[in-house]
Amino acid sequence: MEVPLIDFEKLDGEKRSETMALLHQACEKGGFFQIENHGIDKDLMDKVKHLVNQHYEENMKESFYESEIAKGLEKKSITSYADWESSFFIWHRPNSNVNEIPNLSDDLCKTMDAYINQLIKLAEKLSELMCENLGLEKDYIKEAFSGSKGPSVGTKVAKYPQCPHPELVRGLREHTDAGGIILLLQDDQVPGLQFHKDGKWVEIPPSKNNSIFVNTGDQLEVVTNGRYKSTLHRVIADKNGSRISIATFYNPAGEAIISPAPKLLYPNHFRFQDYLNLYGSTKFADKGPRFESMKKMLNGHPSLLV
């Protein structure tokens, strides 16, 4: 299957409704899609990738191939519980840990900061569009994710090194993401990312023209009451090249209390007879307003709760 492609330029034109519908379907049916014309400076994106690759070559590559996982793979004694990746994690919001990460150049730190400032704006725009599609107030997701200092934002910077025996190991094992909205700047040459859909693994091609790949995490599934599901995905190791992955997580703050948006919940704890009473006069009308009427009735009449 093709990965849904959302063109942000079309949000301001006559194709807005069509584009919003495509976004909604991508979030509901797959949990992953790509964004083009997203407004992030492409020279800046290229520089981030260049500096991350440079940092890996100078500071991480040698130690990775001397690691236990690399030695184990050479001996073909690797277990299925290992990941063929070399990575580190940068926290951006609410507090930065960039000064605690060894050997990061000033250029990489400054470039990453500039990129993240633009990426957060994209994440917030995306969350507003999701809210619009779900019939929520435009800042609902942002506020649901916010602690005293706003949502939490961090980036996993990873290289999936060239692998001599890719049949023996995963680049990254199957998982869903714990957080909210994940925005990925990935390799434009080397494949490896796969998502699980309809019982099959879907290969995600390398990102051309610096499109941003997006997937939804566990907390967005909770907030949307299961409308937007997090999706199982993995990375396959590659024999012919090393893959870069710069995944930024727009997540709830650690102190945020997560629950489904009340607007998206079905009415609950009602007596069936009360529903039948309402149904008698609305049988041939749409069920949506009937559910909303039940919710309002329950909120206004606690005695109806069981």
From TrEMBL:
One Pfam family hit: 2OG-FeII_Oxy
Catalytic activity: 1-aminocyclopropane-1-carboxylate + L-ascorbate + O2 = ethene + L-dehydroascorbate + hydrogen cyanide + CO2 + 2 H2O
UniProtKB keywords: Ethylene biosynthesis, Iron, Metal-binding, Oxidoreductase, Vitamin C
Stretches assigned to the Fe2OG dioxygenase domain: 149-252
Coiled-coil stretches: none
EC number(s) stated in the UniProt entry for this protein: 1.14.17.4
BP term (GO), one: ethylene biosynthetic process
Pathway linked to the protein: Alkene biosynthesis; ethylene biosynthesis via S-adenosyl-L-methionine; ethylene from S-adenosyl-L-methionine: step 2/2
InterPro entries the UniProt entry points to: DIOX_N, IPNS-like_FE2OG_OXY, IPNS-like_sf, Oxoglu/Fe-dep_dioxygenase_dom, Plant_2OG-oxidoreductases
Domain of life of the source: Eukaryota
PROSITE patterns found in the cross-reference section: FE2OG_OXY
GO MF, one annotated term: L-ascorbic acid binding
Catalytic class of the enzyme: oxidoreductase
Family: Belongs to the iron/ascorbate-dependent oxidoreductase family.
PANTHER family reported for this sequence: OXOGLUTARATE/IRON-DEPENDENT DIOXYGENASE
Protein name as it appears in the record: aminocyclopropanecarboxylate oxidase
Lineage of origin: Eukaryota, Viridiplantae, Streptophyta, Embryophyta, Tracheophyta
